[in-house]
Design a protein that fits this description.
The complex is a heterodimer of chains A (about 475) and B (about 475).
Chain A (H helix, E strand, L loop, with lengths): L1 H24 L3 H19 L7 H15 L3 H14 L4 H15 L4 H5 L5 H54 L10 H6 L3 H16 L3 H13 L2 H9 L4 H14 L5 H7 L5 H14 L7 H4 L6 H13 L16 H13 L6 H7 L5 H14 L5 H8 L4 H13 L6 H10 L3 H12 L3 H11 L4 H11 L5
Helix pairs in contact in A: 1-7, 3-4, 4-5, 7-9, 11-12, 12-14, 13-14, 14-16, 17-19, 18-19, 19-21, 20-21, 21-23, 22-23, 23-24, 23-25, 24-25
Chain B lengths: L1 H44 L16 E7 L6 H9 L6 E8 L5 H8 L2 E4 L12 E7 L7 E6 L4 H11 L4 E5 L4 E2 L3 H10 L5 E11 L4 E3 L2 E4 L6 H23 L10 E5 H7 L9 H15 L4 E13 L5 H21 L11 H34 L4 H29 L6 H35 L13 E2 L7
Parallel strand pairs in B: 1-2, 1-6, 2-5, 8-12, 9-13
Antiparallel strand pairs in B: 3-4, 4-5, 6-11, 7-12, 8-11, 9-10
Helix pairs in contact in B: 1-6, 1-10, 1-11, 6-11, 6-12, 8-9, 9-10, 9-12, 10-12, 11-12
């Protein structure tokens, strides 16, 4: 689309030129001649008042004028001739008929030659559109071909530069020479904007796989070449995709100079800017990487949560106690905290988790139940059992699944009741699975149910005992 | 009598003309919205590293449901390709819909399957499930095969939904080739949902005729050699990149192609699953789900992804293509008639006020109007004296508009996904665009009219869809 952007100006210039030449070639004849006709007609009226020829004559004349105005000359001519039969001496009618003849015989005007019997403006519009469509088609074809050539050559150039810079950077990073001295080859690169872009990309790519001293050396090189100025400039750019690129570069190079601007972007209405600013802050917010969660008012989507999680894992960032955000007013922040508590096995968060079981929001309760189950917090079993009665279907399912993850004989009776009383197959299966997880006691209980006459039990228990069904 | 004739003449002349004008304006507007949306999408996703989420623990679980009917030639390879999709939390449910050939036997043998004691609920009614099969080989633990009595594609999908254990379902045509990262791209909008619930996502379907295939994956993309598939490349590009993208942006999408779509399972079940009464089950489901959400007064979205996610073989003979278009027309009519309460109903928002009327006027009725126009002009030419000058001017207008739109579509493709690398292919596509309105478009009008007639005659069959099969460059699958 960028290339289209570049050529669309040219495109409009051509269209404008075509239209302008048409306007120049054909002055608005209607306006000119109708004005002069009115003058003539006025003179006619004042000098020699036209006698009244009845309503029929006026009607025909009106029709003729209307047809003339919109360019239906054949029709107009027919009406004027009809009117002339009633008033053969009208100068006005004769003038009009002459004008029609003139226009029809005007070979300069291509369209009248064909006599479309349609309003002039319609014919002209359609013709312009046809020209426009043909021109746009040719122009697009040209754009495609230019774009293709350009893309191929840029790609080739990029490839050559990438290879060259990579070897230069690797040589620099792993050489034992003075680290503070920047090789002249690399300095030369930094003089061109295009080359600098490629160089920055290469440095970012390299930084992913580096750590310790080598990474510091790369970072120092970034500063020595003053590339951080490019990245900071990008962060202040008005275009969101440039801004985001700036965030990326600063985060990878651990440059905190533009943190204020990044913090401002944390509340951006643009989802992408907000997400990328969050990711940048996780990397650059030394000491309080997750501080942005305290003030986040926009939804923190699962996708954003996942990218933050990936950043933590990839860069081995310190993991905070996520129960700090369990009481956030932002529901999605609470969900993130619950997920992270589960993933990072923060069992010490249980006292706070407990309160989340009575949260007003169904989804938060559901996630809390799952978190408790995955953390295998057996202390919560009586609470889960108590909650079951008043919970939604999805949460009941989550409770039974959570119980299945922390088998306890004390809960056997409850699970048997679930199988017995519930009509939903999924709940019955999950309850039977939970019983099965209890070991010998559970299997005995299931065997007893299997021997029961009730067919449904048999099918459910066979399903649960079938190890091939994961 | 003269008055009646004049009235008809006036209506036909003006109505068709105005309708054409509106149609062209709408197409142009859709293309503009699509261009903006495409640009935004591509920039947005240029920073996304899909690979990083393959192993992430937070991803939603997906059941890929692939109905299979008489697919013995390719079923083993196709399942293998499905099992190797990039995602960590998914299962593949292949539904053998009572195939009459050796489809089921081939799967049974290739994947070492055995019947399991699978208990499930018929939450959505479907034909009798004869058995659920799992592999003895743990490397195929993601695979579940259902053997059921024949009931059609919708019925097979419903059976798969009944067996599914996951939050999201992804329905696919088993004979299509999915891009390895298709699930990652389809699931992303579900993970990005905020205040509006995402009920479904769909992506672009590309044409695989003449492409090279290796191990169930596209190894080399080529423009189809033959005219018919090539003209469909243009059609698909126009439809997917220039229209559906815009409808997706306006949250007015009425269809997620049956070849690949992902849905929220609970909403699908609450809506009653795929309808077995229509041959356009993909469109009907989306309309029903949207209607359901609107009636529940819940905010929702149907998201469209412009990335090419699935490759399919399109008909390359007039006979098969005619059947396909006939079925599409009938499917559209069935859905529109079934949900007629949506028409200009403000209660349903964009769905009732924009999408439904658009489909009714421009997808269902436009070919009929075009046909009437052609017949009328024919009569005029025989009995009257048509205004030939104006006729040729209008013809030039319509023709140049059509080829201009095709060229724009080629530009969209070039600027976005750039799948056809050779310059020769671009020229071929442009030439196809020039020939399409002359040789192909009249046929689509004819098939559409036939579809209408068949609908009125009560024809409800799917129609036999023979395929030539892909050019497979892979070695024979080993057992």
């Amino acid at each position: 689309m960028m290339v289209l952007g570049r050529y669309k100006c040219l495109f409009w210039v051509i269209i404008f030129a075509i239209r302008f030449s048409e306007i120049q070639a054909q002055p608005n004849l209607d306006t000119v001649r109708i004005d002069s006709l009115h003058q003539t007609f006025d003179k006619e009226n004042t000098a020699q008042p036209e006698p009244m020829f009845g309503a029929e004559y006026e009607r025909i004349l009106d029709k003729a004028d209307r047809a003339f105005k919109i360019g239906l000359y054949k029709q107009a001519g027919k009406y004027y001739k009809e009117a002339a039969k009633i008033n053969p001496n009208s100068i006005y009618i004769q003038y009009r008929l002459k004008e029609i003849e003139n226009r029809k015989s005007n070979l300069r005007n291509f369209f009248f030659y064909f006599d479309f019997e349609k309003p002039d403006i319609l014919i002209k519009s359609i013709t312009y559109l046809v020209i426009y469509f043909i021109a746009s088609m040719l122009l697009i074809l040209l754009v495609i071909l230019i774009h293709r050539n350009q893309m191929d050559s840029v790609e080739k150039r990029k490839q050559v530069l990438r290879e060259k810079y990579q070897s230069l950077l690797v040589d620099f990073l792993f050489s034992t020479d003075n680290a503070s001295k920047v090789p002249s080859d690399i300095k030369k690169i930094a003089s061109s904007l295009f080359n600098r872009r490629i160089l920055i990309d290469q440095m970012i790519d390299l930084s992913i796989n580096l750590s310790g001293e080598t990474k510091d050396k790369l970072r120092n090189l970034f500063f020595a070449l003053k590339l951080e100025r490019d990245s900071i400039r990008k962060v202040y750019n008005r275009k969101w995709h440039v801004k985001v690129k700036g965030f990326h570069e600063l985060a990878f190079m651990d440059i905190v100079e533009a943190n204020d601007q990044i913090i401002r972007c944390l509340q951006s209405k643009n989802d992408i800017i907000r997400m990328e600013a969050q990711l940048a802050m996780v990397r650059l917010g030394h000491g309080d990487s997750f501080g942005f969660l305290d003030h986040l008012s926009k939804p923190f989507t699962l996708w954003e949560q996942l990218t933050v999680y990936e950043t933590i894992m990839f860069h081995n960032l310190p993991i905070p106690h996520f129960d700090r955000w369990l009481y956030s007013k932002n529901k999605t922040v609470v969900q993130f905290a619950l997920r992270m508590i589960e993933i990072f096995k923060q069992r010490e968060a249980y006292p706070n988790l407990f309160w989340m079981l009575v949260n007003d929001d169904n989804e938060i309760r559901n996630l809390t139940i799952r978190t408790i189950g995955n953390l295998k917090i057996k202390d919560a079993l009586p609470h889960l059992k108590r909650l079951y009665k008043n919970e939604t279907y999805q949460n009941c399912l989550a409770i039974v699944q959570a119980i299945a993850k922390m088998p306890d004989e004390k809960i056997l009776h409850f699970l048997t009741l679930v199988i017995d009383k519930e009509e939903d197959v999924q709940l019955q299966i999950e309850a039977a699975m939970a019983i099965n997880n209890m070991g010998e006691i559970g299997r005995t209980a299931l065997q007893k149910l299997l021997n029961s006459d009730y067919k449904n039990y048999q099918i459910i228990i066979k399903h649960v005992l079938d190890k091939r069904i994961a | 009598m003269d008055f009646v004739f004049e009235l008809i003449q006036f209506l036909v002349n003006h109505f068709i003309f105005i309708l054409t004008g509106i149609l062209f304006t709408v197409y142009v507007m859709l293309a503009i919205v699509s261009a903006i949306a495409l640009r935004w999408y591509i920039r947005k996703n240029s920073y996304v590293d899909y690979n990083s989420i393959i192993l992430a623990p937070l991803t939603p679980s997906i059941s890929v449901i692939a109905p299979a009917y008489n697919e013995e030639k390719s079923i083993v390879d196709n399942i293998r390709a499905l099992l190797s999709l990039y995602y960590n939390n998914f299962e593949v449910i292949v539904v053998n819909d009572g195939s009459k050939d050796g489809t089921f036997a081939k799967i049974l043998e290739a994947y070492d399957l055995e019947k399991v004691n699978y208990y499930f609920d018929y939450r959505i009614p479907c034909q009798r499930i004869r058995g659920v099969y799992k592999s003895k080989n743990r490397s195929f633990k993601r695979l579940t095969v259902i053997d059921k009595a024949n009931g059609g594609k919708s019925d097979a999908l419903n059976a798969g939904i009944n067996i599914s254990k996951n939050d999201l379902i992804c329905s696919i045509d088993v004979d299509s080739i999915m891009e390895s990262d298709a699930l990652l791209k389809l699931v992303k909008p579900f993970m990005e949902q905020t205040d509006s619930k995402i009920i479904g996502t769909g992506g672009v379907i590309r044409i695989a005729n003449s492409c090279d295939i290796e191990s169930g994956q596209i190894s080399r993309i080529k423009l189809p050699d033959r005219f018919l598939p090539r003209v469909q490349v243009l059609e698909y590009t126009r439809a997917f990149l220039m229209a559906r993208m815009a409808w997706g942006k306006m949250n007015g999408l009425l269809i997620i192609s049956g070849a690949l779509g992902m849905f929220d399972k609970e909403i699908v079940i609450k809506c009653g699953g795929y309808s077995i009464e229509t041959v356009g089950e993909d469109m009907e489901l989306v309309v029903r789900m949207r209607k359901y959400m609107s009636e529940k007064k819940e905010k929702y979205k149907v998201v469209y992804i412009p990335d090419p996610l699935v490759w399919t073989e399109v008909p390359s003979t007039l006979k098969i293509l005619g059947r396909q278009r006939n079925r599409w027309t009938r499917g559209t009519i069935e859905t529109l008639v079934k949900h007629k309460s949506l028409l200009f109903n403000p209660k349903y928002g964009v769905l009732g006020m924009l999408s439904y009327p658009f489909w009714m006027i421009f997808e269902w009725l436009a070919p009929i109007i075009e046909f009437i126009g052609l017949v009328y002009f024919g009569l005029l030419a025989i009995f009257g004296q048509p205004n030939w000058s104006f006729f040729f001017l209008l013809l030039a207008f319509v023709y140049t508009f059509a080829i201009s739109m095709s060229t724009w579509a080629i530009l969209f493709e070039e600027m976005t996904f750039h799948k056809y690398k050779q310059k020769r292919e671009i020229f071929k596509l442009v030439l196809t665009g020039i020939l399409e309105p002359i040789f192909f478009h009249p046929l689509t009008v004819y098939w559409s009219v036939r579809g209408n007639i068949d609908y009125m005659r009560g024809v409800r069959s799917w129609g036999k869809m023979d395929r030539e099969g892909f050019k497979n460059h892979s070695k024979k699958p080993k057992k």
